[in-house]
């Protein structure tokens, strides 16, 4: 049940990333012909037993060890880790379900009718569409994956991925509340986020290569009923994005506990550096886009532009999001897409911040 | 990770979501109460999905002639592809362990001390002068800690001056010297975005860390510009220990 070291022999796979993350048990599938091994039924029974033992151990540990955990730093970490997981889970599950529904029930012709063919015009349309659907960033990643799988231009789907968590109505209202009705902050957030999303989409349309995206081809049996496709697609996305969400939550929890906010406040007076520090903080803390305005507003030693950086970068790029994107699209994609987003969001932050704030 | 394991992990994850919302109030330690219906729905969806996967997998492979042919086809004959999940999916048991075994408590004095002197924690009220009228003619005014702190920082009319006020929070030590803090964490969405609001109390002996108290008393009105104040001080006339409030955050 552990990861197999790199360079596994079972490499008849779409990409390196896949063979790296392929399960240890996979070898049993590829190397010996099935009839050599134990009957499949036995492996299933073994899996069921593993989970039965696991649940029994949890019950045991629950009654014996829970009260013995007293290390404050560890408990604070566990609280934040659990909080990020629980908070992201509904958004992730709804996003995955929506994406699975797109895959299973909406015919491909529907997309071709509504989304412009040319990527140049599809990008702003997708960016604006992102502003309509209220959702968190965790939901938008699997949805963008579902759109690409259905033949939508990757640049347009990625623009949607970026703009949906940043400029949807819930986020804008939350920003207005957090900044007690300073409309210029809401406007600046909207413009900078929308601009960054659309420009990133255009850059991707011009320079991006499709094979950077590791989209698993889910070639379904065309005769399979819609519900089976829905179920399999949902499970697939959940396993890929969910595992990485846990990685991101653990990393963000660690930084939340380890980095005291007073270190951050010491640079608040330096104009450009403070904005960069706030952008870095947004990436590390991985706060949900619907809550980040409250945190930005609470760091009131910082200039408005620095707060804007926090709110523009955060929904498009943070540890949790990078991890989920890696699970959905692969690392080759992430190591190109993440720097591009960072660059465009910072440019638009300084541009809009300079003009409006 | 084979398919039945994926189904089991999904099922456990759903159980964790339901266990922390329906069968206990544990979720209040981590997220806002308005997440409850979403978490319940998510938990139900995950449980249904998990059970469905496990049952269909068992039926397809133990069933006499594989009644569910779709599954045996996509699940086994293709050998690899999407019927298997990457190892990273095993990490999904970590939140399950965290909820059922660790059951971490709400953030408390430790975090309140770690985020010391963060800054005026309520820029929300920068405009000032928009506070509701206060009236203590019918007993002490009950204020949320965040309300008290934002008034103390930004209410130029100083409405709280001289009124008897009631605050509820937990005790946290003051690492920098005299007195102790009555603190409360304010959160917008989940514990990761929690911000501390606190008042400094010097005229009562320090209670046990993380114990919850309701204090009555008055705001120590500062001399100069209220926006320059680092710590808000509070003079206690009466304090009563309380059971942990059901929602530890504001």
From TrEMBL, chain A:
Keywords: Cell membrane, Membrane, Transmembrane, Transmembrane helix. Residues 1-13 have a biased composition (Polar residues). It is found in: Cell membrane. The keyword Transferase does not apply. Residues 23-32 have a biased composition (Acidic residues). The chain crosses the membrane at residues 46-65, 77-106, 155-180, 186-205, 241-259, 265-287, 294-317, 337-356. Pfam families: ArsP_1. It is a multi-pass membrane protein. Its main location: membrane. GO terms for cellular component: plasma membrane. InterPro entries: DUF318, UPF0718. The keyword Cell membrane applies. Residues 1-40 are annotated as: Disordered. Belongs to the UPF0718 family. This is Permease. It comes from Halostreptopolyspora alba.
TrEMBL record, chain B:
Residues 154-249 form the DUF1980 domain. Residues 113-138 are annotated as: Disordered. It comes from the Bacteria. The chain crosses the membrane at residues 34-55, 87-110. Residues 123-136 have a biased composition (Acidic residues). Residues 113-122 have a biased composition (Polar residues). Keywords: Membrane, Transmembrane, Transmembrane helix. It holds the Pfam family DUF1980_C. This is TIGR03943 family protein. It comes from Halostreptopolyspora alba.
């Amino acid at each position: 049940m552990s990861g197999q070291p790199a360079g596994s022999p079972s490499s008849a796979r779409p990409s390196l990333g896949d063979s790296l993350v392929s399960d240890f048990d996979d070898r049993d599938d590829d190397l010996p012909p099935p009839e050599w091994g134990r009957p499949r039924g036995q492996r299933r029974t073994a899996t069921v037993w593993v989970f039965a033992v696991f649940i029994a151990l949890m019950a045991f540990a629950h009654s014996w060890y829970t009260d013995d955990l007293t290390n404050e730093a560890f408990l604070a970490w566990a609280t934040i880790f659990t909080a990020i997981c629980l908070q992201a889970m509904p958004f992730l599950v709804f996003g995955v379900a929506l994406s699975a529904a797109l895959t299973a029930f909406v015919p491909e012709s529907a997309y071709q009718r509504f989304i412009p063919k040319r990527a140049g015009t599809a990008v702003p349309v997708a960016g604006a569409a992102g502003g309509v659907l209220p959702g968190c960033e965790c939901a938008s990643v699997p949805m963008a994956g579902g759109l690409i799988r259905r033949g939508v231009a990757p640049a347009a789907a990625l623009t949607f991925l970026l703009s949906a968590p940043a400029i949807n109505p819930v986020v804008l209202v939350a920003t207005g509340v957090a900044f007690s009705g300073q409309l210029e902050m809401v406007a600046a957030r909207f413009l900078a986020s929308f601009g960054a999303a659309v420009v990133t989409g255009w850059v991707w349309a011009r320079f991006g290569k499709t094979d950077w995206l590791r989209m698993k081809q889910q070639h379904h049996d065309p005769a399979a009923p819609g519900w089976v496709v829905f179920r399999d697609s949902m499970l697939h996305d959940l396993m890929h994005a969910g595992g990485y969400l846990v990685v991101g939550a653990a990393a963000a929890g660690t930084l939340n506990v380890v980095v005291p906010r007073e270190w951050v406040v010491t640079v608040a007076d330096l104009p450009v550096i403070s904005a960069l520090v706030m952008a870095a903080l947004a990436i590390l803390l991985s706060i949900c886009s619907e809550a980040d305005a409250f945190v930005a507003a609470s760091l009131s030693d910082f200039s408005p532009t620095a707060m804007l950086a926090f709110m523009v970068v955060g929904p498009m790029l943070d540890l949790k999001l990078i991890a989920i994107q890696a699970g959905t699209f692969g690392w080759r994609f992430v190591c190109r897409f993440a720097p591009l987003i960072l660059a465009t969001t910072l440019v638009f932050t300084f541009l809009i911040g300079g003009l409006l704030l | 990770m084979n398919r039945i394991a994926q189904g089991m992990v999904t099922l456990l994850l759903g159980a964790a979501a339901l266990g922390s919302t329906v069968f206990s109030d544990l979720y209040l330690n981590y997220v806002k109460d308005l997440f409850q219906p979403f978490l319940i729905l998510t938990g139900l969806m995950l449980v249904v999905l998990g059970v469905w996967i496990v049952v269909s997998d068992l039926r397809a492979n133990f069933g006499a002639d594989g009644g569910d042919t779709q599954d045996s086809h996509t699940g086994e004959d293709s050998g690899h592809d999407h019927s298997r999940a990457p190892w990273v999916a095993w990490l999904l048991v970590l939140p399950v362990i965290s909820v059922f075994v660790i059951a971490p408590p709400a953030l408390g004095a430790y975090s309140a001390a770690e985020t010391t002197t963060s800054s005026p924690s309520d820029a929300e009220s920068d405009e000032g002068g928009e506070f509701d009228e206060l009236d203590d003619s019918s007993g002490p005014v009950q204020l949320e800690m965040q309300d008290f702190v934002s008034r103390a920082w930004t209410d130029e009319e100083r409405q709280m001056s001289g009124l008897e006020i009631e605050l509820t929070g937990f005790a946290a030590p003051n690492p920098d010297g005299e007195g102790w803090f009555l603190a409360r964490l304010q959160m917008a969405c989940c514990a990761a975005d929690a911000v501390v609001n606190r008042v400094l109390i010097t005229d009562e002996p320090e209670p046990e860390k993380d114990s919850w108290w309701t204090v009555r008393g008055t705001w120590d009105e500062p001399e100069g510009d209220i926006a320059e104040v680092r710590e808000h001080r509070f003079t206690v006339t009466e304090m009563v220990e309380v059971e942990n409030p059901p929602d530890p955050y504001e």
